[in-house]
Model the fold of this input.
Amino acid sequence: MLGLLASILDGVLIGAVYGLAGMGITLIWGVMDVVNLTHGAMIVAGMFGTYLLVSAAGIPVYATLPIVLVGGFLVGVPLYWIAVHRVIGQPPLMSLLSTFAVNLVLVGLGTAVWGTDLFNVPASLPGFSMGRYTFPGTHLMAAALTAVIAGVLYLFLYRTRIGKAVRAVSANREAAELVGIPTARVLAMAFGIGVALACVAGMLISTMFPFTVLSGDAYQLKSFLVTVLGGLGNPTGALVAGVALGLVEGLTTPFVPVSWTLVIEFVLFVVVLIAVPGGLMQLLRWRRS
Amino acid sequence: MTILRRPFFWIIAAVIALFAVAPSVGNNVELRENLLLAAVYITLASNINMMLGYAGYVNFGSIVFFGLGGYFCVWLMSAHGWPLLAALLAGGCAVSALALLFGLGILRLRGVYFALATIGVNEGVMAFVANFGPWGGSSGIYLSPMLFQPLGGPARALWVIYYLLVGVMGLSLYLSYAVKRSKFGLGLRAIGQNEDAAAVLGVRTPRFKAAVYSLSAFLPAIAGGLYFFKSAFIQPPDAFDLQFSTETIVIAMLGGQGTVAGPALGAYLYEELRGWLLTSPTFSHFQLVIAGVLLLAIVLFAPGGLMGWLYRRWPRLRDYFE
Done:
């Protein structure tokens, strides 16, 4: 019984990081109606960025976080101008294909450089013991950092002028343009933030699990699941949904072989899409009113 | 038969004849292998085009049909001793039925949500097959060389497989053509342009989408059966190779989505490009990168693809091509 509880709690810690990755997708999706299919590749970019910074430059693992965050933003903004800006407002097919094309390029470069070998980032922190079970320190640290980043993002979106501009563009682009908000630049910035969140999520995952160049697909699927579960364009919902997904993973791992996790998550994904397209948050709100 | 008077019907027939005859002259095995891959590409691209080009629904996991068809065929032959043709047909029907089942579920989703679900279908099916005991799990199924005997030994069997694949390719092109000219195709293209308006005008959108999803599964499944029968073994990473899926999309976009001739043209050009890249020492590792750059350039600058460009250059081509 205690084992199950420990498994669930550990799942929740990991789930928080899924939530962070989901926030990256949901922000871009909500603001500009673009599904960022480079997300998985960006998560992997965060992983390998951390790996390089730690192994080649000798920077302590957790000190790479700000570098990865800023790096992700600096990659995301030009990417918006190259691949996304021209397809804004076009049928969804076009933005799907253009971000997908960028994903191909990134994954292709990654496999050409690193192959498909398994990598890991050496990170160790003292764990927290509960009876016979020990929570790895890296998992606790990842969840704590996720909470901090989510808090900062919340303050940014709701308390600063630029954050308000982002929300205004998300609500109604034409109206935002009319009141003098430079929407194209706001969109570019939102895309940059979304990519930065993906990279940081990748950095945190790399401290917990080994990874390959192709790991992105599985985490991208989890991020989409978290996004639809939490409701489109709702960062708080994404975080809650991430924790919920982690909880489900923690609940199933003692009983089901790990290789089935993806099948279960996919079924969950389709069921949620069909049954509650507005996400769990909408369901809660609906119940309350 | 008015269709016999259409030039495009005879253009397709000429292409099939060329595929069938060219490698037979002088027993040119190398040419046959190249054309075999081209025929697979044309089959996959023509079928994805019915979703992507006509209905405007992008299917990132179209390779699931190909892989599952391969699995059904190989499994029926090795475990149950079915003859090739029966196994192929059964595989095609099974995958089509499965696609209809999936389709009725995920095609209630629209646009972006559908695209996301197709990525999930691929990941989910691959994970399922990798854990599925009767199909050998992650180690796959190997075929005994004895199974080539009924076709007259391995050397002749390869020719039989090639001709069958060319037949499947021809059927794909005619199917794509027939759908485009039918009322069904008109409904699909209405969905592609504006799904709400199409529904208001009486197009039964969920049913149409499920039907085309299932239809576009049939021939790729048979092609998959032939392809994996030829290589005599099948494993999840080969059967559900996402690279194949993505190449198919690149091909359809390169040739011109929504046209019948486009995917065939795109497949041939991509095959040539790929052959050149594989032999070039600098670029052989960067095939995916180049496919990605190509796709991005098409999406951003020439969404009509090659056929779109040709039509603009010579508008009279529209009388001969579809």
